[in-house]
Design goal:
elongated; mainly alpha; 45 residues; single chain
């Protein structure tokens, strides 16, 4: 039971870090041109 005092706050911190990383990726434009990357493989340069 004592381990829950460590695991619950640790999991909350981990979820917050993931959400911060996802928010940073969205706001920095990482997901702007998803379709172009799929078509880039098919083009012969």
């Amino acid at each position: 039971m004592d381990i829950l005092y460590v695991l619950v706050p640790l999991s909350v911190v981990l979820v917050l870090l993931v959400l911060i990383g996802l928010g940073w990726a969205i706001h920095s434009g990482q997901f702007e041109a998803i379709e172009q990357e799929g078509e880039r493989i098919l083009r012969d340069d």
